[in-house]
Specification:
The complex is a heterodimer of chains A (485) and B (94). Chain A is of the alpha+beta class and 485 residues long. In chain A, 39% of the residues lie in helices and 20% in strands. Chain A has three domains: 293 residues, no CATH class; 112 residues, no CATH class; 59 residues, Arc Repressor Mutant, subunit A (Orthogonal Bundle), CATH 1.10.10.410. Chain A has 15 helices and 17 strands. Chain A has a nine-stranded mixed beta sheet. A three-stranded antiparallel beta sheet of chain A has the order 6-5-16, with no helix packed on it. In chain B, helix 1 crosses helix 2. With 94 residues, chain B is of the alpha+beta class. Chain B is built from three helices and three strands. Chain B has a domain of 37 residues: Orthogonal Bundle (Histone, subunit A). The chains are: A alpha+beta (485), B alpha+beta (94). At the A-B interface, strand 2, helix 1, strand 10 and strand 17 of A face helix 1, strand 1, helix 3 and strand 3 of B.
């Protein structure tokens, strides 16, 4: 029995996204990923006494940009606060964050579920610093005698985006997250490299009896770093809560952790205390005043966002599915646009990008960000097909050649002698030979076996290494079969 | 509002301080004295005063987004009570 038979899920998500700055939020240390432990640090991000933070202007620019992309109101006045708690990934024993005056609030984004659109509210988005990274000596935090702290990540700028508890199914949650990450990717506010932890999710989830309007007790599962983890975690946690409720027990409001290897959520409760962050204004940083001109300056730099792009692609005659796939990453969508500048047949371009080119990239573990085939090269190749210089089949070979050698398609076609044979006389000669060599198939065809025709076409193609123009082959073959025999 | 012994206990826990019974009693008293003193502010009429979020009349102090070299590895770990494999080593967390 599934929880859905008796309960409705209510879920909201806090998304932490690392902003794409060169330096940390309050100091000049690099934000580069993957350095040796504790080498991107300074007195500020190590929280050494007496060190003073100074806000990175670019963090504010990107926060405003993200806010605008998410249809938020941008605060005219905003400030930082200290969120106090003891945890070793935080060297100062407080996190510099924003409390009652976040930079962005009251936004929303649209998701599409089973062809229907639904609006998900964004309560707020605020700037804060990332914490350091913990490595535990044992298998997990609960079984380790000690842990190791790397502060390279401490002070990397984050935007925490808090959704309303508007999601009712796991699919809606995933759709929200995908749309959110796509928007942030398009807006260029983050590199959105999930595998490097650039985007992390905390989910708040509760169940309530079907039809009930009251909210149930929720749990919070922190630090999920992929869509797949969110899905599995929610599937587990909803069933767990349903079992608790079915036994007539109460769900305990608490923070839990997701154990990916075991596929379970575990309580992180400590006897110590209820959460009490004792927020207060950060006296080391002065407040921010954001005038409308600043906001408009940033708005002018916003690129076309995924929803608008999908609509535009549909207007070009693509299906909703095609538009969805092509806009799934900004790099792919940009690639499509650039090919279209030189070859404006949306269907054809979409087919090649989604089909052969995607497959080629996937087989080589690459993405459209570092695609070795330049958009103009793909466009040139499509022109060769259109002109009839190469067949669609030969084009696949040409595509691979461009991929590996980087040469332009016209050069490859010439060098490899791939130009399609459209010379009527030449083809007639070849076809005559093929017919002479295959008297049985000829007889079969004339005896009514249509299949034999395909075989003969295949033989012609084989004889020309696939270079014969297929329409011409069909035409000549038919003529010869009718007249000569 | 009066500070009670439980409040001091909670505050001590949140601040990771271990207090003796005598200290708890002493802090309860001194915290209440401080609160009483601050309470005199409520006599002021502040209806027309904007809530202050900062003592300095300043806004918008920024750094540009340019990388500078910070501490080297050795300096970074110099004050660590325990360090291992390039990292700060801390005792069991939960």
């Amino acid at each position: 029995m599934s929880y859905q038979d008796k309960y409705e899920m209510v879920c909201g998500v806090e998304t932490h996204v690392e902003l794409a700055t060169k330096t940390k939020i309050f100091c000049a240390c690099t934000t580069e990923f993957g350095g040796e432990q504790n080498t991107h640090v300074c007195p500020v991000c190590l929280g050494l006494p007496g060190a003073l933070p100074v806000l990175n202007r670019e963090v504010v620019n990107l926060a405003i940009k993200a806010g605008l992309a998410l249809n938020c109101e941008i605060a005219e006045f905003t400030k930082f606060d200290r969120k106090n708690y003891f945890y070793p990934d935080l060297s100062k024993n407080y996190q510099t964050s924003q409390y009652d005056l976040p930079i962005c609030k009251n936004g929303r984004l649209e998701i599409e579920i089973n062809g229907e659109s639904k609006s998900i509210g964004i309560t707020r988005a605020h700037m804060e610093e990332d914490a350091g990274k913990l490595v535990h000596s044992g298998e997990s935090i609960t079984t380790s005698d000690s842990s190791y702290v790397d502060y390279n990540r401490a002070g990397v700028p984050l935007l925490e985006i808090v959704s309303e508890p508007d999601m009712r199914t796991v699919d809606e949650v995933i759709a929200y997250l995908q749309e959110l990450v796509q928007i942030l990717d398009y807006a260029g506010v983050s590199d959105c490299k999930m595998e490097q932890g650039s985007v992390r999710f905390d989910v708040n989830v509760s169940l309530r009896p079907l039809g009930s309007r009251e909210l149930g007790t929720r749990t919070e599962i922190k630090n999920l770093n992929s869509f797949a983890a969110v899905r599995r975690c929610l599937e587990y946690e909803t069933e767990r809560q349903a079992k608790v409720l079915n036994k007539g027990e109460k769900v305990i409001q608490e923070t839990r952790t997701w154990d990916d290897s075991q596929g379970v959520t575990l309580s992180l409760r400590t006897k110590e205390e209820a959460h009490d962050y004792r927020y207060f204004p950060e006296a080391d940083l002065v407040p921010l005043k954001i005038d409308p001109e600043w906001v408009e300056r940033i708005r002018a730099t916003l690129p076309e966002l995924p929803a608008a792009k999908r609509e535009r692609l549909k207007e070009l005659g693509l299906s909703g599915y095609e538009a969805g796939v092509l806009t799934s990453s900004k790099a792919m969508a940009d690639y499509f646009d650039r090919v279209m500048q030189n070859y404006a047949d949306a269907k054809v371009v979409a087919n090649w990008i989604m089909g052969d080119l995607s497959a080629l990239l996937k087989a080589n573990n690459r993405s459209f960000e570092d695609c070795p085939i330049k958009p103009y090269q793909l466009a040139d190749m499509l022109k060769l097909i259109k002109k009839g210089d190469i067949s669609g089949k030969i084009a696949k070979t040409v595509l691979e050649e461009i991929y590996t050698g980087g040469k332009d398609p016209a050069v490859i076609v010439k060098e490899k002698g791939l130009v399609q044979i459209r010379d009527q006389d030449a083809l007639e000669k070849i076809i005559a030979e093929v017919l002479a060599q295959n008297p049985k198939s000829v007889a079969d065809y004339q005896g009514g076996k249509e299949k034999a025709f395909g075989f003969l076409v295949g033989q012609v193609m084989k004889a020309t290494q696939g270079k014969a123009n297929p329409e011409l082959v069909n035409k000549i073959l038919k003529e010869k079969l009718q007249i000569a025999y | 509002m009066r500070i009670k012994a439980e409040d001091v206990e909670k505050l001590a826990l949140m601040s990771r301080l271990e207090l003796t019974e005598e200290e708890k009693a002493a802090y309860t008293e001194s915290l209440n004295a401080s609160l009483d003193y601050m309470h005199s502010l409520t006599k002021l009429v502040t209806d027309t005063v904007e809530p202050a979020v900062h003592v300095l009349p300043m806004v918008n102090v920024f750094r540009e987004d340019r990388v500078e070299i910070g501490l080297d590895h050795k300096q970074a770990l110099a004050n660590a009570p325990e360090a291992e494999a390039g990292s700060f080593k801390v005792p069991r967390i939960v």
